[in-house]
Design brief:
The chain has 145 residues and is mostly helical. Helix content is 69%, strand content 0%. It has 4 helices and no strands. The longest helix is centred in the N-terminal third of the chain and has 49 residues, at 6-54. It is elongated.
Length: 145
């Protein structure tokens, strides 16, 4: 119970008798038991409320392990069929973005020292802004109207 041994519990009991006296101790124990019962009831009501709000399929919802409960629900509903493909696609996109970032760093780093200087960054920004032209008018898509 709470990681306490018999000696520690006996020490706490002796201190409690000294502080509150043997006359008040039983009443304090009853109040503590009622308080613990009240907190358990509040926790059970909260879990019941969460289960009812989540709806059918979450009857076995465990408030201490919400991820596991949702995982069980998803597996009951047919599993994670398309998730593996989605994860693979996201990994490929991440790799492409990493490659593009490395290319940009190599392009900006003119000295080849691996450090992008403020001057190199300013030159790259100027080149990018000079190369971009603002189009006149808004784009028009005849199929969208």
């Amino acid at each position: 119970m709470f990681g306490l041994g018999a000696g520690e519990i006996a020490f706490i009991a002796v201190i409690a008798v000294i502080l509150w006296g043997p006359d008040k101790l039983p009443e304090l124990a009853r109040k503590a038991a009622r308080l613990i019962q009240f907190f358990r009831q509040v926790a059970n009501n909260a879990q019941t409320s969460v289960r009812s709000e989540l709806g059918p399929g979450f009857e076995d919802f465990d408030i201490t392990d919400p991820k596991g409960s949702v995982r069980r629900y998803v597996m009951k509903q047919g599993g994670l069929d398309g998730v593996d493909d989605l994860v693979a696609t996201l990994r490929e996109a991440t790799a492409e973005l990493d490659d593009a970032a490395a290319d940009i760093r190599r392009t900006i780093d003119a000295n080849g020292d691996g450090v992008i200087d403020a001057g190199e960054l300013a030159a790259a920004r100027a080149a990018a802004s000079a190369g971009s032209r603002v189009r006149e008018g808004a784009p028009f898509d005849p199929e969208a109207t």
